Amino acid sequence: MMSEIDDETINLLAARIRNEDRQAFDDLFRLLYPRLVYFSMRYVHDRDAACDMVQDAFVALWQKRSGIDPDQALRSYLYTAVRNRSLNWLQHSSNKNESIHDRPDMNLVSDNRTDTTAEQENDNKNSLSGLFRKWISELPDRRQEAFELSRFDGLSHDEIAGIMDVSPKTVNNHIVSALRHLRERYEQHRNTEAEE
C-alpha cells in the first residue's frame, strides 16, 4: 500500500501551480505520477500507454493552470482525467478489433510495484499477499476500482465518488462488499490450511 498524501499538501501545490510555480507542478507530478500510472494500468494493462495518458493529463493540467481552484479536489481531477483517457484508449483499441488480452506487449501488473518480474510474481502466488491480490482481482470491476482507490491510493469516499461518477454511499457499499469478500476468502483459506 502506498503512503498517504494529505489533502493540505495537494491544496498548497494547487495554489502554487495556479500561480505558475513550475517547482510545485514538478512536486505534484512526482507525488502522484506512480499512483496514476498504476491506476491507469488497472484499465489498459499497458505500461507505456498508461505512462502516456498520465503525462497527457499533467500537460492538460499545466495548460489549464490559471483555472485551478485550490479548494477543489485536484487529486480527483487528475484521477478522473486519467480514467477518462484510459477508457478512451480502451475504446480506441476496441475499435481496431484488437483484444487487449491478445496483445504480446501487455504488461500486466497485479500490485503497486510495476517493476515486479514474472519470477517474483510466481514466488508470490502462494504467499498471503499474493492470495489477497488474487482475491481482489475476483471482485466485480466497479467494486475492485472503489476498493483499490480507497486502500491503495488513499482516496476519500467523496473523491472516489467523483472519479467513478457515483454517490459516496455507493462507494461505501462497494468497499464494504469488497471487505466482506476478502474476509470470506481469508476464512476459507485459514480453514483449508487448518485441515491440512
UniProtKB/TrEMBL annotation:
Chain intervals for the UniProt region annotation (Disordered): 96-124
Annotated GO biological process: DNA-templated transcription initiation
Keywords assigned: Sigma factor, Transcription, Transcription regulation
CDD domains listed in its UniProt record: Sigma70_r4
Domain RNA polymerase sigma-70 region residues, every copy: 28-91
Domain RNA polymerase sigma factor 70 region 4 type: from-to ranges: 134-182
Pfam family, one: Sigma70_r4_2
Biased composition (Polar residues): 109-124
GO terms assigned for molecular function: DNA binding; sigma factor activity
Source taxon at top rank: Bacteria
NCBIfam families: Sig70_bacteroi1 (TIGR02985), sigma70-ECF (TIGR02937)
Annotated family: Belongs to the sigma-70 factor family. ECF subfamily.
Protein's name in the database: RNA polymerase sigma-70 factor, ECF subfamily
Organism per entry: Rhodohalobacter mucosus
